[in-house]
Amino acid sequence: MLSTKHLLGIKQLSKADIELIFTQADHFKEVLNRPIKKVPSMRDVTIVNLFFENSTRTRISFELAEKRLNADVLNFTTSSSSVSKGETLIDTVNNILAMKVDMVVMRHPSPGAAIFLQKHINASIINAGDGTHEHPTQALLDAYSIREKVGELTGKKILIVGDILHSRVALSNIYCLQKLGAKVKLCGPPTLMPQNIESLGVEVEYDIKKALQWCDVANVLRIQLERQDIQYFPSLREYSLYYGINQTLLNEIGKDIVIMHPGPINRGVEISSEVADGKNSIILDQVENGVAVRMAVLYLVHQASVAELQNA
Known about the structure:
Layout: H1 15-32, E1 46-51, H2 57-68, E2 72-77, H3 89-97, E3 103-108, H4 113-118, E4 124-130, H5 136-150, E5 157-161, H6 168-179, E6 183-187, E7 203-205, H7 208-214, E8 217-220, H8 236-243, H9 247-253, E9 258-260, H10 273-276, H11 283-311
Parallel strand pairs: 1-2, 1-3, 3-4, 5-6, 5-8, 6-7, 8-9
């Protein structure tokens, strides 16, 4: 049984929780490869996808996972809601819950929004990304995909490259990988590296070639221009020159490195098409695994919520 009826961040999960999610995801991945890809595990459970930020991959992945579990699904976007008229987050969610919704999957631009909401409502909450704070299901599917490719993560060397400062994926990945025993190193421009990030137990390397020579797996992050209020580097061309990963660079390294990217990809900036589509890339595996992992999270969070009600 999961130790919590919410998924607010990786920080709140134990190693046992993560391994339980992976075991359940293994089962659901088998389901997704059957001719009939549905199970009745969450029949009569109503889930609302509450997205206050634009999203394609995460929203579709969650919606597909929910429908594969036979849940009833409601999709909410702020542009067509009373939020645009000034309604508060708590009022919005309480109005939805009054319609007997069991679970909220929420993406929000403010760090800590999921934690804040959890203190004010009774339904289970799954954080689908909150500002620059955490993106727990992305970290879980990333770690699950690495494990599928290279085996257990204990002692594996994982490099996270790019816009660390604005990335919720980076923080969740750091927490998740470390709990599973991996070594984590960060690489990117000094202007895109958070101050005192080493306090999380990670190393920082500013030379991309040295960083790639060190690692077994490179998780390449997108340059998040929409979150950058000032110019953090001279140009995209210069970023690509110093930190972009292309086939020429990988050939110079002279070893096979597993390549990952949470998407969407800025092709030709942080990563070349040749690398993104190459034999060592598991980017599409991440997308496929995302549905199985999110099915596992939804199911286990619901089970924990039911158990809490029974024990109350």
